[in-house]
User: What shape does this take?
Amino acid sequence: MWKTADYAGWGRVHTARGEIARPERAAQLAALMEDAPAPAMGMRRSYNDSLLNDGGRIIDMTRMDKILAFDPETGVVEVEAGIQIGELVRLFAPRGWIPAVVPGTGFPTVGGAIAHDIHGKNHHVLGSFGQHVLSITLLQPGGGRVVASPARNKALFRATMGGIGQTGVILSAKLQMIATPGTSMRVKETRVESFDEFLALLDASTFRYNVGWIDGTATGAAMGRGILEEAELTDGPRRRALPAVTVPFDLPSFALSAPTVKLFNAAYWRKVPARGNVSVMPIAAHVFPLDKLYDWNRLYGKRGFHQFQCVVPVENAEVLKQIVAKISRSGLASPLAVIKRMGEGRAGMLSFPMEGYTLAIDFPARETAEVLIAELEAMTVEAGGRLYLGKDALASGATIKAMYPEWEAWAAQAEKADPKGLLITDMVRRLQLRGTK
Assistant: This one.
């Protein structure tokens, strides 16, 4: 069952080599966890080393993707952990239900969504993914099967939501979906002139879904300009979705040079007319914009890329403005930069969200970018914010521990579930999150 292979996260900066097992049935997974326990991974959409176990074993859960039960009256669905979020949208939107929270891509698995307590474009309304998980079934080292929920094994449940896979391998989960009137979204696009205007529009938005693309190259009065997208679910007629295309090979480094990115960003900003734009599109076309371009991580070349994602409290928004200004002056930003308003909702001890503004931006993996990211991390600490464990590939353990005040309570639950450290991954080792204070 075990086969040796090389693998990596989506950012492709960190890599690993080791034995991988791909169980297809619950009985196979149970046997693995009894005889040869190992951490789990899904579609490898985390950008960093949270899913890697270099030199060790890993369990690939992507073949365990069955729907176990569905109640069409309540929208409660029980699934195996390997099913993809986008598949749930595809299957259930025509039946009037979709997952309450989805990320910017449909490829992550439910297990991965739980392990990172993902957030989406509606966090300010519905919170994080884990807040809509009704229960989970975990297989722990030695083969023990444990059910946890907000009311049963509560501490274990909270340690698992956003817990980067350290409390056991998720076998299945029961989710509460939300109703949708149809399979479409009505999207309003607004051209935004500056950073201050962006925050004001995000604060004033009454839409359930909102997200902003921000031009990470604009300076001066235009610094922080971008496009705000606000959306609602609808049953209205929609335009036809464009077919997805594939990046066929790793691009050379000059493809994302500073002049090229600056020109692209300026053109992209102008694609929305000054009067704005309203359109109706398939749900997936709006909530999963990254999926229109398969293998888009190859745009950054063989060396890969880093994504810096922080959240900063509302009262310290001025620091986020300074972060955007530093990025724009650096000339290192890629076209992929997103800003969102977040609410209070978070489900776990290591969950990322807090009420405030989150910024996510990609940088080609270069030494200059790593120096810049270190400076941005320090500014985030200053602002009382935190970094997203699903994206971070560079921070120190001391930095992360300072940002997550419940990390010791989380570590205690992880040690209880996995006393021999058989589920520890490269990220946990890098950040020294277990076995040390």
User: Anything to note?
Assistant: The mean pLDDT is 96. The chain is about 25% helix and 25% strand.
